[in-house]
Amino acid sequence: DTEVTQTPKHLVMGMTNKKSLKCEQHMGHRAMYWYKQKAKKPPELMFVYSYEKLSINESVPSRFSPECPNSSLLNLHLHALQPEDSALYLCASSQDQRTGRGYGYTFGSGTRLTVV
Amino acid sequence: QKEVEQDPGPLSVPEGAIVSLNCTYSNSAFQYFMWYRQYSRKGPELLMYTYSSGNKEDGRFTAQVDKSSKYISLFIRDSQPSDSATYLCAMSDRDDKIIFGKGTRLHILP
Fold first, then answer.
1. Cβ–Cβ contact B94 with A under 8 A
2. Which residues of B touch A36 (CB under 8 A)?
3. Could you tell me if B49 and A104 are in contact, meaning their C-beta atoms sit under 8 angstroms apart?
């Protein structure tokens, strides 16, 4: 299995809703990432988990809450979002971060989020 | 000066031509260099991964890194319409936080 699977593929939510994005990989990668991508822009890093612990938070607003239940799963909990949070949310994983031998990231296809 | 500079294009070339894409960077600590291809409404797909300087070839794709000039390139030989996508360069000094270029939109004309 060489994939990162993200669900759902599309999500429309109101500003008062609570929803979660899910990401799963079975490649044995120990680093997992959340990125946000706006149209015609490069991906922007949000969070990094290394060995199931949060290692980087790029000053993301608290309405985004990441969770890493185990080494294969990564969630992003969403609450009280704003319309400007509408974007493609990408999950990625990479190999052993501690040795620096990440061999690049494997990205999922993303969840296209629309906040109304 | 931005850490990674990449011309956003669009770049249009005829089918069969050699495509040259490039990025410059300012951080001399970068040692991991990547090229990703992204189709519309899809996640980025890793094409090439290079550690430090040198060339790497994979099929029709060749990646070059010149650390002395802080310049990386991706060459696509015998370009096909299916190569039409956005190409993102990315680089890192420690492999846990990669910096992306803006991406170059490439159109291969049949």
1. yes
2. none
3. yes
Q: Going by C-beta distance under 8 Å and a sequence separation of 6 or more, which residues neighbour residue B79?
A: B13, B15, B16, B17, B18, B19, B60, B108
The separation between the first and the last C-alpha atoms of chain B, rounded to the nearest angstrom, is 37
Q: Do B96 and A109 touch (CB under 8 A)?
A: no
Chain A residue with minimum CA distance to B102: A42
pLDDT per residue as tens digits for the range A57-89: 999 999 999 999 999 999 999 999 999 999 999
Tell me which of B23, B37, B96 to substitute to probe the interface with A (most A C-beta atoms closer than 10 Å): B96
Query: How does pLDDT run across A7-38, given as a tens digit for each residue?
Result: 999 999 999 999 999 999 998 888 899 999 99
Bridge partners for A33 per DSSP? A48, A92
